């Protein structure tokens, strides 16, 4: 049966292929048999997932003990640990893998059914109600198993046109899929500027989030058309629809190829203003895409991705190698390394946050200052890499003067440690701050006095100004980059920085969205950093723009306070591009 689903397109383009359902959270796991010689490995995979979950629970218990979480939580944790240790789940699952050769996820969900039936027979109504907790524990183990791919790695089950369909994916999950050859991503949950969407976008394949029931409605191997530009999925299309989309796909491909012609052209407006177009990356491997895009620097290296999907922390040498690789490959072009922005939706394994509002909690620089050893290790690694290129340090989520001073003191301390160790680094390394909290935008003078450059993180600036969780699709309609308050704040930061001659860029998603290019140019922005796939489209806009025409309109937009008026002025501004 053919049907259509509508979601929110987060990465443009058209993909045509076959559905592959990601399993973990929904308990709809893959079923397959393993060869006998893989039994030990499969059991080890199961055991390590149990160990991960146990560590998570222990971290949560510690949080309760330290007073960071409500005490009622403790009883609930004890129960979950008890379930985790129940032999029906652990021992019996191992036996089942050994004797029936089914994969670990399959065995575990079968044993979960056995345990649920046992709960069903319990007389005590309270305990009977605990069935939901059993399911939650098993979900956690299954999720942990995603970090320990099985004997049959996902990629080998896939054909060249596989489209991943998931209920939800964390940024860490998507990172894992970087190495797989999916042609598109679909999720039930998520929103435009969630980190999951950002990573999906960096993969440069069509992606749609907030599809609500896609994971339930789409079956494994269904034929799908994914229109990432319009946020539409067509399931099992007929021949005519398929032909139409194949045609559109080849037109898009042609346009993409045409854009390649401007790859080496300088990004200059018609009136001769030169603009820097930089790339956002997550890992050193992304440099290949950066080179393809013609970016002339890295405006945002989200270093926290080096910390995800692993049980340990990356040490100084490992981080140094990653940063050095990027610096060397960029041949003295700017490489802006953001210190780890962990917390909120990007957590170290086993330290998933229990805070009620993690985005307002111990995240980014707050976590760095709370974990000085971890911060010091990273600062040493970045400083060491500064010898190999034009490396800069960018600090996320600064909100007040004390944090700036403490951060600068940490950097000075790391520099002194390297001097003592007789290790070379760039003594004049530039240190910048992200402007992504309204308080920072509103007390800019102090930021400009103490820092060498600014980078506006519009993704968080919108979230924190409008009080809209950027990963919650139920409030995605309120996440409005055109809100007059946002436009005013962005304009205020750009214009104040320009007046003070402090370099300023935007590295949030707004910089890669072509409908904002002219507005930002008109407000005086001359440095944009975005995911590489979008760079040539933005450059194309720049090449067709004339600042004297744009500036008066941009000023009018900032002064407008009615959404209709803003929309009409934006249409006029973007007319003809
Ligand atoms: C931002 O907030 O705009 C930003 C670039 O940082 P991140 O998306 O990683 O929070
Ligand atoms: Mg941010």
From TrEMBL:
It holds the Pfam family PEP-utilisers_N. GO terms for biological process: phosphoenolpyruvate-dependent sugar phosphotransferase system. Its EC number is 2.7.3.9. Residues 257-545 form the PEP-utilising enzyme C-terminal domain. Phosphoenolpyruvate binds at residues 302, 338, 459-460, 470. Gene3D superfamilies: Phosphoenolpyruvate-binding domains, Phosphohistidine domain, PtsI, HPr-binding domain. One of its GO terms (cellular component) is cytoplasm. Keywords: Cytoplasm, Kinase, Magnesium, Metal-binding, Phosphotransferase system, Pyruvate, Sugar transport, Transferase, Transport. One of its GO terms (molecular function) is phosphoenolpyruvate-protein phosphotransferase activity. It is found in: Cytoplasm. InterPro entries: PEP-util_enz_mobile_dom (IPR008279), PEP-utilizing_PTS_enzyme (IPR050499), PEP_util_C (IPR000121), PEP_util_CS (IPR023151), Phosphohistidine_dom_sf (IPR036637), PTS_EI (IPR024692), PTS_EI-like (IPR006318), PTS_EIN (IPR008731). It comes from the Bacteria. Coiled coil: none annotated. It is an enzyme of class 2 (transferase). Mg(2+) binds at residues 436, 460. It catalyses: L-histidyl-[protein] + phosphoenolpyruvate = N(pros)-phospho-L-histidyl-[protein] + pyruvate. SUPFAM superfamilies: Enzyme I of the PEP:sugar phosphotransferase system HPr-binding (sub)domain, Phosphoenolpyruvate/pyruvate domain, Phosphohistidine domain. Belongs to the PEP-utilizing enzyme family. This is Phosphoenolpyruvate-protein phosphotransferase. It comes from Nitrosomonas oligotropha.
């Amino acid at each position: 049966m053919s049907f259509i689903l509508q979601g929110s397109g987060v990465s443009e383009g058209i993909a045509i292929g076959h559905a592959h359902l990601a399993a973990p959270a929904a308990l709809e796991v893959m079923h397959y048999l393993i060869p006998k010689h893989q039994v030990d490995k499969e059991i080890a995979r199961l055991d390590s997932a149990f160990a991960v979950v146990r560590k998570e629970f222990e971290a949560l218990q510690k949080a309760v003990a330290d007073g960071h979480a409500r005490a009622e939580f403790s009883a609930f944790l004890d129960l979950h640990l008890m379930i985790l240790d129940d032999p029906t789940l652990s021992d019996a699952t191992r036996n089942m893998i050994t004797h029936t050769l089914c994969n670990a996820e399959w065995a575990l969900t079968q044993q979960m059914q056995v345990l649920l039936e046992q709960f069903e027979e319990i007389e005590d109504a309270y305990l009977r109600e605990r069935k939901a907790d059993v399911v939650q524990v098993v979900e956690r183990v299954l999720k942990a198993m995603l970090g320990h791919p099985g004997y049959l790695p996902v990629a080998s089950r896939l054909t060249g046109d596989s489209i991943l369909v998931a209920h939800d994916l964390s940024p860490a999950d998507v990172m894992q899929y970087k190495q797989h050859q999916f042609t598109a991503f679909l999720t039930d949950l998520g929103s435009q500027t969630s980190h999951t969407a950002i990573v999906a976008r960096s993969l440069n394949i069509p992606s749609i989030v907030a599809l609500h029931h896609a994971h339930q409605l789409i079956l494994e191997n269904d034929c799908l058309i994914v229109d990432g530009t319009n946020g539409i999925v067509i399931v099992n299309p007929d021949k005519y629809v398929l032909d139409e989309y194949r045609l559109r796909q080849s037109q898009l491909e042609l346009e993409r190829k045409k854009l390649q012609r401007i790859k080496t052209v300088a990004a200059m407006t018609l009136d001769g203003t030169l603009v820097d177009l930089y790339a956002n990356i997550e890992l050193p491997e992304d440099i290949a895409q950066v080179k393809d895009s013609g970016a002339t620097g890295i405006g945002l290296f989200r270093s926290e991705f080096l910390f995800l999907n692993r049980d340990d922390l990356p040490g100084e040498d490992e981080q140094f190698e990653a940063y050095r690789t990027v610096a060397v490959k960029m041949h003295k072009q700017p490489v802006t390394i953001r210190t780890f922005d962990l917390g909120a939706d990007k957590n170290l394994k086993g330290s998933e946050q229990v805070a009620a509002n993690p985005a307002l909690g111990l995240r980014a620089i707050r976590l760095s200052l709370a974990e000085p050893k971890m911060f010091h290790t990273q600062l040493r690694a970045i400083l060491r890499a500064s010898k190999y290129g034009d490396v800069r340090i960018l600090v996320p989520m600064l909100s007040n003067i004390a944090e700036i001073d403490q951060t600068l003191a940490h950097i000075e301390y790391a520099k002194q440690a390297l001097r003592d160790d007789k290790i070379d680094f760039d003594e004049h390394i530039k240190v910048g701050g992200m402007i992504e909290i309204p308080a920072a935008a509103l007390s800019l003078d102090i930021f400009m006095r103490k820092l060498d450059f600014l980078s506006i993180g519009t993704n968080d600036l919108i979230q924190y100004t409008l009080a809209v969780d950027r990963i919650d699709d139920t409030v995605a309609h309120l996440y409005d980059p055109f809100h007059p308050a946002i436009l005013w704040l962005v304009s205020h930061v750009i214009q104040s920085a320009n007046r003070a001659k402090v370099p300023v860029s935007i590295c949030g998603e707004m910089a890669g969205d072509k409908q904002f290019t002219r507005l930002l140019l008109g407000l005086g922005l001359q440095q944009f950093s975005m995911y590489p796939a979008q760079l040539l489209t933005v450059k194309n806009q720049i090449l067709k723009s004339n600042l004297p025409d744009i500036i008066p309109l941009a000023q009018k937009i900032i002064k407008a306070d009615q959404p209709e008026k803003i929309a009409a002025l934006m249409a006029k501004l973007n007319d003809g591009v």
